[in-house]
């Protein structure tokens, strides 16, 4: 299937799942009544820009904070130096300007990451004010307080995405003792308020069977979860290759995710990087998304932390039109299977040479 049609179909399916989730929730229904037309307008903007020679992806990823309150084993953000507890990120108005430009171009979703994004409350509040874009906020969840619960409750374009590793015990093993139970408490509060929340699961060779088990997924749904992101582990930190999915593992995971999607029409199941054969390559460098680091650098992907254009200085459109991204897209569509959850990871030397 042609890439734009493939991604538009995926967005429509996601919107359908969220609409079902919110059928019995007045705040959610009101949000979707406004947001579904916004999705259609954004798709039309992307189609128009395509005719003008500019491919606009439906997604961005923005790491709005370089600090984090945890030190998780194998963390990609610490492994590639983006999360350093020292660097000062961009000002709130700079982030707002970038997000508003992106929305104007037709971007529908900006995935908010870090570091720990909830450390940057002013930017989260700025995201809440941009109603024609949805902001899945990838967080360890530990900084939720009453003010944050209220903010997410009143602004359903903010979607909390809680990072877990599987069971509470599996989460503790990577994130620290007691973290799993604290996350369960946060999830309980989100469900109590009927806030659509997602979980993000890092899939490794060790946990892939457990986190895709039907009982595990059913338990998430019964706990109020509406979306599951399955993120294949990328070995940014040294000596962690034993956690990487083999080629056989990746093929198995792709089939298993397809089974879960078919069985669970009441949930969104979103794998990353997903079916690269169907998408004719990696989605990085603007094909489906690109990453803005805490200093505004336009990177192909969070796992490929190299840039030539600063979005805060030059804008989103300049990044999409850059020669750097064009060359990266040629690399990422080479037809080879990915390794370690990221095709560009295999081409790091080539990317650095650009």
In a few lines, what is going on in this structure?
The protein is α/β, with parallel strands linked by helices and 354 residues long. The protein has one domain (3-353): Aldolase class I (TIM Barrel, Alpha-Beta Barrel). The protein has 15 helices and 9 strands.
SSE inventory with pairings:
Blueprint: H1 3-21, H2 26-51, E1 59-63, H3 76-79, H4 92-105, E2 109-113, H5 121-128, E3 135-139, H6 146-154, E4 158-164, H7 168-175, H8 179-192, E5 197-203, H9 208-211, H10 214-222, E6 225-232, H11 247-263, E7 268-272, E8 291-292, E9 298-299, H12 311-314, H13 316-320, H14 323-332, H15 348-353
Parallel strand pairs: 1-2, 1-8, 3-4, 4-5, 5-6, 6-7
Antiparallel strand pairs: 8-9
Helix pairs in contact: 1-2, 4-5, 7-8
* Number of separate domains: 1
Using the coordinates shown, work out and report the CATH topology. TIM Barrel
Sheet-strand content, in percent, reads: 5-15%
Provide the helix percentage. 40-55%
Major beta sheet summary: 5 strands, parallel
Number of strands: 9
Pfam families: Radical_SAM
InterPro entries: Aldolase_TIM (IPR013785), rSAM (IPR007197), rSAM_sf (IPR058240)
Keywords: Iron, Iron-sulfur, Metal-binding, S-adenosyl-L-methionine
GO molecular function, one term: metal ion binding
């Amino acid at each position: 299937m042609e890439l734009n049609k493939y991604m538009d179909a995926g967005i429509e399916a996601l919107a359908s799942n969220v609409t079902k989730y919110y059928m019995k929730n007045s705040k959610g229904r009101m949000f979707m009544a406004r947001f579904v037309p916004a999705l259609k307008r954004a798709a039309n903007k992307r189609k128009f820009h395509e005719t003008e020679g500019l491919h606009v992806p439906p997604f961005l990823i923005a790491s709005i904070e370089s600090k984090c309150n945890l030190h998780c084993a194998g963390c990609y953000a610490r492994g590639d130096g983006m999360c350093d507890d020292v660097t000062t990120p961009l000002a709130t108005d700079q982030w707002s300007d970038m997000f508003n430009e992106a929305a104007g171009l037709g971007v529908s979703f900006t995935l908010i990451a870090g570091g720990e994004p909830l450390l940057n409350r002013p930017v989260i509040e700025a995201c809440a004010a941009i109603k024609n874009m949805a902001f899945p906020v990838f967080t360890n969840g530990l900084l939720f307080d009453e003010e944050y619960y209220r903010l997410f409750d009143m602004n359903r374009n903010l979607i909390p995405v809680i990072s877990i590793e599987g069971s509470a015990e599996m989460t503790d093993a990577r994130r620290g003792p007691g973290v799993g139970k604290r996350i369960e408490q946060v999830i309980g509060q989100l469900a109590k308020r009927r806030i659509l929340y997602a979980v993000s699961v890092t899939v490794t060779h060790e946990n892939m069977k457990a986190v895709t088990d039907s009982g595990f997924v059913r338990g998430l749904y019964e706990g109020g979860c509406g979306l599951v992101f399955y993120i294949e582990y990328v070995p940014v930190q040294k000596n962690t290759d034993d956690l990487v999915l083999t080629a056989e593992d990746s093929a198995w995971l792709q089939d298993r995710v397809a089974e879960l999607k078919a069985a669970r029409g009441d949930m969104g199941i979103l794998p990353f990087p997903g079916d690269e054969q169907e998408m004719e390559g990696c989605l990085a460098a603007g094909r489906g998304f690109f990453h803005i680091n805490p200093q505004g650098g336009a990177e192909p992907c969070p796992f490929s932390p190299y840039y030539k254009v600063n979005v805060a200085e030059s804008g989103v459109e300049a990044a999409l039109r850059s020669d750097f991204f064009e060359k990266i897209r040629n690399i990422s569509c080479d037809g080879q299977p990915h390794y370690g959850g990221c095709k560009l990871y295999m081409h790091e030397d080539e990317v650095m040479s650009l």
